[in-house]
Structure formats: C-alpha cells, structure tokens
Amino acid sequence: MKLKQPAIAVALACAFSAHATDLIITNGKVATMTKEGAYAQALAITDGKIDAVGSNAQILKRKSSNTQVIDAAGRTVIPGLNDSHLHIIREGLNYNAELRWDGVTSLRQALQMLKEQAARTPEGGWVKVVGGWNEFQFEEKRLPTLEEINEAVPDKPVFLLYLYGLGFLNQKGIETLGYNADTRFKDGVVELGADGKPTGKLIAKPNAMILYTTLAKTGALSREQQLNSTQQYYTELNRLGLTSAIDAGGGGQAYPDDYAVSLELARNGKLTVRTSYYLFAQKPGKELEDYQRWLTQTHPDKNDHLFYANGYNTEGGGENLVWSAADFENFLEPRPDMPAQMESELEPVLRLLIKNRWPFRIHATYDESIDRDLAVIEKVNKDTPLSGLRWFFDHAETISDKQLARVKALGGGIAVQDRMYFQGELYWKQYGAQSRQMPPIQKMLAMKIPVGLGTDGTRVSSYGPWPSIYWAVTGKTAGGLKIWRDQDVLSRYQALKLMTQGSAWMSGEEKLKGTLAKGQYADIVILPQDYFTMDVEKIKQLESSLTIVNGKVVYAAPEYSQFAPARLEVQPDWSPVKHYGGYQNK
Predict the structure, then answer these.
(1) Neighbours of 174 (CB within 10 A)
(2) Which of 118, 173, 199, 483 could staple 156 via S-S, CB 3.0–4.6 A?
(3) What percent of the chain is modeled with pLDDT above 70?
(4) Residue 187: its pLDDT value, please?
(5) If residue 424 lies in a helix (H) or strand (E), which one and from where to where?
(6) Pseudo-torsion of CA 387, 391, 397, 399, nearest 10°?
(7) Which is nearest to 324 in space by CA: 285, 289, 359, 360?
(8) What was the pLDDT predicted at 221?
(9) What is the three-class DSSP state of 45?
(10) b/e burial code for range 285-318 (CB count within 10 A of at least 16 → b)
(11) What is the mean predicted confidence (pLDDT) over 503-520?
(12) Predicted local distance difference test score (pLDDT) of residue 287
C-alpha cells in the first residue's frame, strides 16, 4: 500500500528525527581509550550512544537545527568513571545525614566542621562522620582525641566511624545509647576508663559489628528525605566524574526493603549513575535461605530504570555470600581465621548461584581466605561447571601468584580498591614494610585477568574516585607513604582504563562502556585539567566540569552553567550536605 504524500512527509520527518544527532562535543582532547595515546577532537551522540568520533569538521557535518553543541574549549574528554565496588545504594539512604571528612586536610578544620554541624543539628539528632577519612590525610597526622570531640560537641550525640577498627562517641552519645560497664558485644569492646565507665571509644575485634550495630542506633532519615538524599548523592558522584557504579551490597542493606527508595527513583528515571547491584546476605546461618528467596524475586540483568539501558540492574550475589567467609580488613588487629564450618556453608550457596547462572563476587582480603574460597569454587566447578559464568574476588590485597593462576583457570576476575591508600601505614605497622605490590595489580594484568578499579566507599575508604586513580599511578597513601615500588605503579592510561572499561567487566558491560567509540554508551566527562599531563599530586583533587550520562548532561560546573540541570534543594535544611557539600576536594 502506498502512503499519501502528507503521510510520507510525516514518516520521513519522524525517521530523520529518530536518527538525528542529539549532541556534539567539539574542540576537545578526546581520550578515546581505544588504545594508549588515541585522541580525537570531537564526537557525536545519538539516542544515548556515541555515533561518531573524529575531527571538528567531520563531526559538525552531522549537526542539524536540533543538535546541541558543547564546546570543550581544549579540555580533556574521557569516558565516564565506573567504580567496581561502591556501596552506592546504602549511602544514598544516609548521605544527607552525614558530615563527610573525605578530603579534609586538617584535623582543626574537621573539628570545626563538627562543631558547626552540631549547632545546626536539631535536638535529638546525631552528628555523624561515617568513614572516608583517616589521620594521615590531616596535616596533624593524628586522630582526634575524645577530649577534643567532647569539647567540640558537648550537647548533641556524636558518632565517628574510623575505618573498620574504631568508633568514637562523645559523652552525650554514650548517654543517649545507654552504654555502660555492662554493655557487651560478641566481637568488640566498649573501652572503660579508670572510673569503670565507657570512655567513648569502641574497638572492633576483629570485625566491625560493634561499629555497625552502634551506627544503626543513631537514627535514619525519613522516606522523603531518603529520596532526596539518594538523588543528592548520585549528583555528588556525577560531580566527581562517576557515571556508573557496581554496588556491592553491604551490612544492614537488606533486599528488597532497603532498595525501595532507589527502585522508586530508577522507575521514575531519576537516578543519574548507571547502577548494577549484587545482593549481600544479611543473616549468619541463613544465607542460603536469602538466596533461595531472591531467586524468586529478581534475576540478573533485570533493569528497572525508566530511561537508561542497564540503568538499575540486579547483577548477582555477594560480596558477602556467607558470613563465615568474611575476613574484615581491620589492620589494627591480627588476621582473622575463618571458622571451620565456612566450606560447608559456602558450598551450597555457590551451587545454587552457579546452577541458576547468577554471577557472584566474594569479599576476600587475605591469601589464607582466598585459598579456602578457591578450594570450594574448584570443588563445585567439577560437577556444577562455571562455564564462563562471571565471578570475581573483591579486594585480594595479599593474593599469591599461585592463587592468581587458579583464578585465571576458573575464568574469574578481581575488583581492587584503594583501601591501602587509607590503610597502608596501618598495614606496615602491623606486618612490616612490604616489597610486593598490594594488591598485585601488575601481576594480574600480566596474566590477563580481568581487573576493575574502585573505592569500597563509603564506610572505610572514601567514595571519591580520583584518590583511587592517584594511588594507582603513584603507589602512595593519603599520608604520602610510597608503598609500591616504581615498577609497580600504573600508567595514567592503565589506571583510567581500569576505572572505566576494566570495571565494566564486573557487570558484563565491557563492550558497552569504557571507551569513546561508535556504539558505546554516551557516558562522558569533560575535565577542567588534562589528567594525562597535569601535576600528579593534583589528580586526587580532580572533579568534573561537565558530566553526561546516556547523552544528557547530569552535572555542570560553573563554566558550563548554561547546560546545568535544575538543582534539587537538599533536605532536611540542617543537612551537612546543604552547608558543606560532600567530598572536600578544594
């Protein structure tokens, strides 16, 4: 059947509109990341994907009357960053309630922020600093004393989380919680003073449950505030150049209840970081029941985002598959021994996941733990083959060469994080100076094992991606201690590749993300400085000038204010985020 002339015109117009270029970036140093040293000048975006990369002249030929053009003005353009291990969904629920010391360079300033925040926090509310900092980032090179904390805030309850090792309560916090000489925790100590009363220091021995349990008693935001908090946190990550994250679950993050806020936002198209999440078993001894139930509720690659492909996806199981396999990296304490029943608890969970083709990830810091984990995986693989199923270890600081060969043989990968950036000094104090790279990233790359770079933010390390990249290209801690040999540090190209395409392997998206090439997702960052040539010490302070996800601008710094999305006001009004923002990278 032939169409009448007006109908033909409408059909042609619709067809043209569907394929017309939506956005062009010109005049950039476009790091395509297809290979080291590969740069272009401009790129075109159509329907959320990169349509072409080339010179200004080549790309501007695609411009139509409806095409938006952004002038990079010589700035460096990179693929959006992708954190392979971030507790993004959990942090979204809490971000607006937390005072972040991430990036703060002096203890004096940190305590002043604590004092100021207490003044605006309403009666009954807690002042909380929940991870992302250590004493080595401060010019004073020390932790706050309990006396300083109490002097700064005498009248509002305060809780400070320090890595996975210590917690600090002021006297008002102790009173509010009702902690006393009889307060007991299975794996932790409430320190008592000479008077037999709690001093305010909480000590993890060795796992962090005393700290998590205490944190859970400090209150939560309302549902409306959690919706706002999650959007604020995602925008904060966009500000730092993050466009994708792989969520590792976390303690106190139960599925599906604690995912309801992010799910609602995803279904309304309001999440601006593509999020793939793994499900983390919550109850010791009940992990198999958790996974059996979750198999009936969701499945890998189930996308609930209204607008983005792979925008909010169930991914698999972990990083906590069973509690008995956990080895907290509390370097203030000796290495923990996993209990004898670990193998008998881990094996049925692995069989269930592999049989149902669920990808999985396993938290493992030490080679002793990895050895036992691998033995179980190898046993299951003999009669329930992995057959290319994606799986990987998280952390693996002390994994051995022989264990890497076993990971390689099983088709696994490794997600590494900059935990040593925050805890290198503590590890050296506990175990002595190290000569072997921790984790041995160069060895992993040489063996062609998939490697993704991330942060493990937010309760130990910071969520800031650039300190992780800085650590990878310098081998230095936040305090400046060089913990890698010169031959171990990564090139800037290698580090960026691991935080983009490398991390994409952990969600099965390595062919869709991580390079600026035709057909890739249009997740792009324009930087204010040239990452590849700038002073290396300033890399840890980088952020984005302009962040694009799925072809749309989701964050714009003042130099690109004309492209900035409408700003969402922070709730509640007393939120530390409203007054300080998040990562203090100025």
Answers:
(1) 19
(2) 118
(3) 97
(4) 87
(5) helix 419-431
(6) -20
(7) 285
(8) 98
(9) strand
(10) eebbebbeebeeebebeeebbeebebbbbbbbbb
(11) 98
(12) 98
Query: 353 with 189: CB under 8 angstroms?
Result: no
Q: Which phi and psi (to 5°) does residue 70 adopt?
A: -115, 125
Measure the CA–CA gap between 16 and 46, rounded to whole angstroms: 12
Tokens of 186: 């299975």
What is d(CA 31, CA 518) in angstroms, rounded to the nearest whole number?
14
Q: Are 43 and 70 in contact (CB under 8 A)?
A: no
Q: Which DSSP letter does residue 460 get?
A: T
In sign, the C-alpha dihedral spanning 568, 570, 571, 573 is negative
Beta pairing class for 158-162 and 49-54: unpaired
Task: With CA atoms as reference, report the closest residue to 86 among 307, 238, 244, 213.
Answer: 244
Distance in angstroms (rounded) separating the CA atoms of residues 142 and 68: 50
Q: How does residue 360 score in pLDDT terms, banded at 50, 70 and 90?
A: very high
For the chain, state the CA radius of gyration.
24
Q: If you average pLDDT over residues 126-135, what whole number do you get? A: 97
Q: Which two tokens stand for residue 465?
A: 């991606």
Q: Could you report the per-residue pLDDT of 528-577, keeping only the tens digit for each? A: 999 999 999 999 999 999 999 999 999 999 999 999 999 999 999 999 99
Tokens representing residue 189 in the block: 């100590």
User: Cβ distance 439 to 414 under 8 Å?
Assistant: yes
